[in-house]
Amino acid sequence: MATLPQLIEEDIQNLNDILRDFIAKADAIAALVIDKGGFLITSQGETADLDLTTIGALSSGAFLANQTIAGLVHETNFNSIYQQGENSSLLVVNVDEHCLLVILFSSAVGAVKYFASSAVQKIARQLRAAQERAPGQGLDLSLLNVANTEDVFRKKKPAGKRPRADK
User: What distances in angstroms separate CA 33 from CA 44, 101, 120, 148, 167, one per listed residue?
Assistant: First the structure.
């Protein structure tokens, strides 16, 4: 069963716009959209010195462990986890059944949570639009052959140009 709707270039651009707006409003360092398997979908902010692959995988694992704890204490759902450090903090927020929003910040957690609420709604809306565009078709990134991603990622053909026939 596919876990993530098929995303096109427009979806990623819209998600990036949402993340950039969120980072500016919340004064966050970086924001990532990941699937619940921990795979990075997109990110914005100061990410050059960050290992986003590992952050995505560990954030997903921490969130899912948190969900297990919720069940053990008879809570139906913990929708976020917050980890506070001396210099930076991390907030992981549930977006929908497929994705999480991971936020790295050094500002006040209250402002980040406040602006994250709106960002999560916008991200979920974009993911729903992608799902409605191709219902029942999607990707399970855990099945992706990372050695050969040609079946998933292709270059967009320029508009108005036809492919040449090889001689």
Answer: 9, 5, 10, 23, 44
